[in-house]
Design brief:
Layout: E1 14-20, E2 24-33, E3 36-46, H1 56-70, E4 76-81, E5 87-94, H2 98-107, H3 109-113, E6 120-126, E7 146-155, H4 156-168, E8 172-178, H5 182-190, H6 192-197, E9 199-205, E10 210-216, E11 219-226, H7 230-241, H8 245-254, H9 260-285, E12 291-295, H10 302-312, E13 315-318, E14 326-327, H11 331-340, H12 345-354
Parallel strand pairs: 1-4, 3-14, 4-8, 9-12, 12-13
Antiparallel strand pairs: 1-2, 2-3, 5-7, 6-7, 9-10, 10-11
Helix pairs in contact: 1-4, 5-12, 7-8, 7-9, 9-10
Length: 355
């Protein structure tokens, strides 16, 4: 389900995938083999500090540091865009080649995406019809045939700058992808039976924002970004308790029972936003979401998962994108990977989608 803005035609056997987060950069090195994918290494590093736009030079320097930490020789790199840097929408477009679809959306984004997006580039993915889906009535012609398409967009200047930074760092930019789709691609590999047969919600709790993707029997039917992330919860705890940000983060993840009342008030707004998205889907499709799968660093808090389950009234659980990968890690990383796995979801999903 990859919808890259830049995707080289030749398949690579190994790739570095970078998820440039608001606070932490997550990166993985993944290799494709005949029997599946192998995780060769991972890195979690502080994201670069900058006041306005991240310069090409600073991003290139950061990418070099990330890849040195991974200690890999591959030069192929894919980078995921944050929720605020990319747009992902469903649209109905004429059945034409993808290159023509891109041009159609570019010429009239408001008509197809309900939003003016000047200076953007777009990519499209034609959604295959599900088995058993109703076909349109051919007895009533209504213009050229159309198909459902997933459209992704991003500012052209940003895409150009990222490509320049990747090249300046000494790497080959294989793809630039919307981070929203990372969990979807990783989930399909990790839990293929659930992916193809059930209606589930994937919730990735990031630093500044949270994404929710609802999958119906293998199809992404609804996606949304919510402007509430782990940072807002931590800041709220720090202000309520009069402690430092670092202390609040430690308490949030390690000793939440001591601040349960404070934490509930901070988690509740996120739960309501996610519940509204689920309610909208269930009303539109007359189907119930059976499970909610959580990823991101904040999902490591069992109490937060339980609070969300209470609010959403649907079973919530953390999942691990590494479950479908073979591991070829050093001793230290082998011992750490399970605990950090939920943070690697976007990076793993982007890597496996382009390999």
């Amino acid at each position: 389900m990859a919808v890259p803005f830049l995707n080289r035609s030749s398949k690579r056997e190994q790739v570095i995938s970078v998820d440039l987060g608001g606070r932490t950069t997550k990166a993985v090195c993944v290799q494709r083999q005949p029997d599946g994918f192998v995780l060769l290494g991972f890195a979690l590093m502080d994201a670069p500090i900058y006041e306005k736009n991240l310069s090409t030079e600073l991003l290139a320097e950061h990418l070099r540091s990330v890849c040195q930490t991974l200690n890999t020789k591959t030069r192929s790199l894919v980078l995921s865009l944050s929720l605020s840097e990319s747009v992902v929408r469903h649209a109905e477009l004429p059945q034409v080649p993808v290159s023509d679809m891109r041009q159609i959306v570019k010429n009239n984004p408001k008509n197809y995406l309900q939003q003016e997006l000047p200076g953007h580039v777009f990519d499209c993915y034609a959604i295959p019809a599900r088995a058993g889906a109703k076909m349109p009535d051919k007895g009533k012609p209504s213009g050229p045939p159309k198909e459902r398409v997933l459209v992704a967009g991003a500012r052209k200047q940003m895409v150009d700058d990222i490509q320049a930074a990747v090249k300046e760092a000494g790497f080959i930019p294989e793809a630039i992808t919307p981070g929203l789709l990372g969990p979807v691609n990783a989930f399909e590999l990790s839990l293929p039976e659930v992916f193809s047969r059930e209606v589930v919600a994937l919730v990735d709790i990031g630093f500044k924002s949270t994404s929710i993707c609802i999958l119906q029997e293998g199809e992404l039917v609804l996606s949304r970004a919510v402007g509430i992330g782990g940072d807002k919860m931590t800041n709220g705890l720090a202000e309520a308790l009069g402690i430092s940000y670092a202390e609040a983060e430690s308490i949030k993840m390690g000793m939440p029972t001591e601040v349960q009342t404070n934490l509930e008030g901070l988690v509740l707004p996120l739960g309501r936003e996610l519940r509204a998205s689920i309610d909208y889907y269930e009303h539109q499709h007359d189907k119930a979401v059976s499970q909610v799968f959580l990823s991101g660093a904040t999902s490591c808090s069992e109490m937060i998962v339980q609070m969300l389950q209470t609010e959403l009234m649907v079973e919530c659980k953390q999942w691990h994108p590494i479950s479908s990968l073979r591991l070829s890690l050093s001793g230290e990383q082998a011992g750490e990977v399970e605990s950090v796995s939920p943070q690697l979801t976007v990076a793993i999903g982007a890597a496996t989608a382009v390999l």
